[in-house]
Fold this protein.
Amino acid sequence: MDRRHFLSAFAAAGLLGGCTTIRPALVAGQVGGACLPRVMVSPERVIRTIAGLRPYRPSGFVVRAEPLGGTLVVHNYGHGGGGITLSWGTASLATEIGLPAREGAVVVLGAGIAGLTTARLAQERGRQVTIYAAALPPDTTSNIAGGQIVPASVFEREHVDAAWLAQFEAACAFTWHRWQLLTGSDTGVRWLATYDEGTRPPSSPTMARFMAGREVLSAADSPFGRPVSRYQTMYVEVGRFLRYLTAEFLASGGRIVVRRFATPQDVAALPERLVFNCTGLGSHHLFDDAHLGPKRGQLAVLLPQAEIDYAYMLGGYMFPRADGILLGGTWEQGQWDAVTTPEGIARIMATHTRVNSQACMA
Ligand SMILES: Cc1cc2nc3c(=O)[nH]c(=O)nc-3n(C[C@H](O)[C@H](O)[C@H](O)COP(=O)(O)OP(=O)(O)OC[C@H]3O[C@@H](n4cnc5c(N)ncnc54)[C@H](O)[C@@H]3O)c2cc1C
């Protein structure tokens, strides 16, 4: 299930309850059906192309404890296409399991968004933390993410049970609150109006919260010449945010060691008795999780355009950032190579050329 199909499928699965439609403040630069500034999609404006592997499990992320000799490993991995969104939430679940169970210094495996947020929450609760990671930012999957705060492409409904859904709800509630406290130019977190081809009402409190002030625009009122929904959510410029988190972690006495672990026994040999496993896709090999696999996403990044103050998800997604305009829209299951393909990038460019050829794009 991809980012844009997620919300309607969630509704179809009957997981969403009643939703009150709130009319938002008007989007800056737009009144009624007036035009939006156009994203200039052309090959000459592409400044980089990049691909990343979403750590995807049809049965959703894993947050649970596993004894390993005298060490307690608390897993926190497998967030699929929603790892940036869910990071604070699953870090909270993981630390709530791990910290009461073991005193003293702790280890976090992984320096992506899951590892850094888990490390920060452990520090906030007074623990000395060492991060061990095979690679550091900017060389993590988290650095590649678009950074929209919506938990999309995280699981398949038929593969999860009520206990997992309760964890998901709890993670969503915590994370939504925590991200709001982090908006600012130092963190790279901000609110943006988002245009989405999904027009079915999201109706559970869980999902509706990620679409603040959602309303449906008719084709006549839509700048895209087709019915869309419009809501506000947050976006993270992930590179900047990971730099911010790393600096906070180090300033709070954290230690970072670059090291790849090959087996669980190597992990158990560490002196610390509590280890948070935040290795993302690395858990496929390190902890032998055959349910975890890649969902590749390719991106074409255009020169920044400061006037683009909205995002959209219309066949593909466009997220405007200071480091470029991200154009995405591929979800390739089982592809283990984090490389772009000429066909993938051509498809993305064609999709976004089409979206931006609407008459009502200024
Ligand atoms: C194109 C694309 C767009 C995306 N857009 C969004 C979005 O808009 N919103 C959203 O919420 N999510 C998005 N995601 C998903 C998000 O990027 C991931 O869910 C998230 O980054 C996973 O974070 P992580 O910390 O678990 O993994 P990673 O960022 O991969 O970090 C894993 C860490 O573990 C380390 N590690 C791995 N194996 C070992 C080992 N054996 N020993 C030691 N260290 C190890 C790695 O070196 C790294 O430091 C997107 C993903 C892609 C690819």
